[in-house]
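Task: fold both queries, return tokens.
Query 1:
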Amino acid sequence: MNISIFGATGFVGNYIIKTLTDNDYNVKALVRKNSVSKLSNSAKIKLVKGDIDNYSSIKETIKDTNIIIYNIGIIREFKNQNITFDNLHLEGFKRVLEASKNESIDRIILMSANGVCSDGTKYQVTKWKAEQELINSGINWTIFRPSLIFGKPMHKSQPEFCSQLKRDMIMLPIPAPLFHEGILPIKSGLFELTPIHVENVASFFVKSIRDTNTMNKIYELGGLETYSWKEIIKIISNACGKNKLMIPAPVIFVKLIASLFEKYKFFPITKDQISMLMEGNIVEKNYFNEFDIEPIEFNSKSLGYLKN
């Protein structure tokens, strides 16, 4: 079976490609010319060099393929470089849908995100709008909405939550912030997330390809356990060999600082990212048994890559 993928060079994309090639799928990927080095399995797949803004490149990528995987996603915008949620999450995906109309595409599998909605942050809204475009396209579809994804990046330039947390918080000589609303620290650091390993996410994508029961369904993906922010900091700290001090931090002040500096790459987080973090990211049901996938737990062992 022939698979085309958009977003191949990213953190999750590299794992999806590895899982696809390990299962003997023929893979074709749209890759920007200066991003080929970010692919860990480039010798095993067919590359189409181009950009998601280029309609002819999209047509060449999906030509003679059965399944499309759209995995393009960013966690923050840099508008001066045309790196925006609208362009990459929504408009790029709409171009792929348009290009698919005259092709024999069996299904499109979309990477979305847990917590998407029609009235949230730009990240959440553009992901939600892309879902609606797919659902109303008339093409068979499957949508995956992962919670926090963790795991060792295959390329050092790929952003990964736990690695960034280690660099920007755990290793700094200051206490880790336990964010809370308001002034009183009554619920500091108690918002929750359900982390899932990147290998498991890739397995869900690839397992769904031959399973027709997954057509036209949305799956929220999370691990076996849900953890509070305080617990996550502790687990990551232990994996790094650190005993990290934690203190309550009113989120309003952090958001104010972020709003001033988020346009600069050196600043590690945006105001919207803080808002989404504070909302929590819980997945109440898991599908490991349904997909016959062995779950990888969120613990010091699976976070061993942080010791380097």
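Query 1 returned. Query 2:
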Amino acid sequence: MSDDASPSDYAPYIALAIVLGLFVLALVGLLVAALIIFVFTPTPAAVITPATNAAPLNRLAVIDADRIYTSAPDGSDQIELKHSGSVPTAALIWSHDGQHLIFVETERDRSRLISAQPAGEAPLILFETDRRSAPFYLNGSPDDRAVAFLIPSALNAMELQIAQTDRSNSAQLALAGQPNYSSWSPDSRSLVAHIGGDRADAFVGTYTLNDTQPHQIETSPALFQAPVWLPDNTDTWLYARQQGARGELVLNAAGAVETLATFDGGVAFTLAPAGQQVAYTLNTPDSFLYNGLTIIDLAKRTTQTVYKGNLVGFFWAPDGKKIAYLTGALVEPASIGRAGGLAAPVVAQGQRVLQLTWHVIDLTSGQTSDLNTFEPTEAFIYLLTYFDQFAQSTTVWSSDSRSLVYTGTPLIGKRGVYVVDTQQPAGSPRFIGPGDFAIWSWH
């Protein structure tokens, strides 16, 4: 017998090699095809992720004289936003995704609207003008791609401008007139606006970006401030109209107008975050500022008065289960404004002796907690005077619906930024740091 292998002995190995070779060639072919598809297929447009789906941020943004800083809820991890110039009253907002702060600064004879990361990185000048025309109210679009802002105007008294947040010096005039209030559509393509207060030429109308003129939907507005565009991607708006001697709070669904409530005098209202409830309060001649707080369930069309008495403003919690409202006592006469129109703030000379008290209504249990009493800063008074408009651009509630932020001086403590834990009514407010104006991030 011979020790050399015959060709038949190698046949299985040759067959296996052929099979493996074919498999490798097929695999290489698939990889090449995939690479070709990857290289030559256009990249899809970026998808805007809603802020509610983003990682928790839960930070405060503070204006302290000419400084801007952010901090954790307990005041730690303070990060100063590097910039030059002074910051006008309340001229600061968070982007909805929490990645940018948009603010105004004035320096010498110029003013600038800037978008920057929280520490001041990657600043982008969105709008620049003279100091006298400095923007004073900012409202970012839901998709963070645009920001609406107001400026004083010698020709029109007030102008609403809109700038793109990814392009410098991109602002364009949208709506002119005073007073000037607006609300973004949920798709960030349009606004509903209330121009002119309750004057003869006043109106409520919609404006689509890049249009030349608004489309009027109401020519007899009642005495109110900010309209609301409902967050359901339809043409549905809340506003108030005058019908003879009576005011009406109405829901306009693409032209089908329904009266939700009637009133004498003026009204202020805000929408619950989910858009299923609207809360309103009345401005009457004998009230401190407003009187009563009533909630309308838009799905069931039911009405419930949850508070009877004077108040100066209210804010929905993000979870829609609680409302914080403030009552006030004016020890020394001083105007804190009425429903007349958002305007650039004028800092009063001398000391205001106004005391405010926080209260929170749990809408599930019906119980009310009485919280902290404090003397507010001028900036907080400014926010409170236009609370229905500021509720659409900022939040005084933490994203977990537990804490409130304010700026002022508590009965015991120094002036600055304070956080109130609404789940511990008997607890003392937490001092965060110095500041005149403070807001929470959206998530």
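Both queries returned. Flag for query 2: Helices lie at 7-40, 378-385, 387-390.
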